[in-house]
Amino acid sequence: MSRCARRPRRICAERRRKPIVGWKAAPRSSLPQGDTRVLPGPRARLLADPAERGTIPSSLQLVIDHVGEQLSVEELLFALTAPRPAQAARAISYNEACAALVAAQHLDWIAL
């Protein structure tokens, strides 16, 4: 039995109707123009709390690290996808960086 089948029908139907993001293999289309500034969102002040951060992916962690810098969307995407030292976190692809920005926006960590 699937997990969805065990939950009330209303919850599963709502989850299917309202996806977090509405793009297919092109997350950049969900972001504004490249010169738009990325500003701290309404919940940005909570990012110092370990409970808010939880065990987020490294791409979202990098977005959080740049929240206060007020970079443009393209500058932030460049910073997220820049090569890192060998001992640092793994490389972030362009699509993953775009998806991380969309997710951070949905979490109200950033405002675009």
Strand content: under 5%
- Give the overall shape: globular
Helical amount among residues, as a percent range? 40-55%
Whole-Å distance between the termini? 41 Å
Counting DSSP E segments of at least 2 residues, the number of strands comes to 2
Number of domains: 1
**Which whole number gives the mean pLDDT?**
77
Helices, by number, come to: 6
User: Low-confidence parts, pLDDT < 50 over ≥5 residues?
Assistant: 7-18
Largest sheet: 2 strands, antiparallel
Q: What is the chain-wise order of helices and strands?
A: HHEHHHHE
- Biggest β-sheet: strands ordered side by side in the sheet: 1-2
Sheet/helix structural class? mainly alpha
Rg for CA atoms: 16 Å
What does this structure look like?
The chain has 112 residues and is mostly helical. The protein has one domain. Helices cover 42% and strands 4% of the residues. It is built from six helices and two strands. The chain has helices at 3-6, 9-17, 50-53, 58-65, 73-81, 94-106, and strands at 39-40, 110-111. The chain has a two-stranded antiparallel sheet with strand order 1-2. Helix 4 (58-65) crosses helix 6 (94-106) and helix 5 (73-81) crosses helix 6 (94-106).
Please provide a brief summary of the model.
It contains 6 helices and 2 strands; from the N terminus they run H-H-E-H-H-H-H-E. The protein has helices at residues 3-6, 9-17, 50-53, 58-65, 73-81, 94-106; strands spanning 39-40, 110-111.
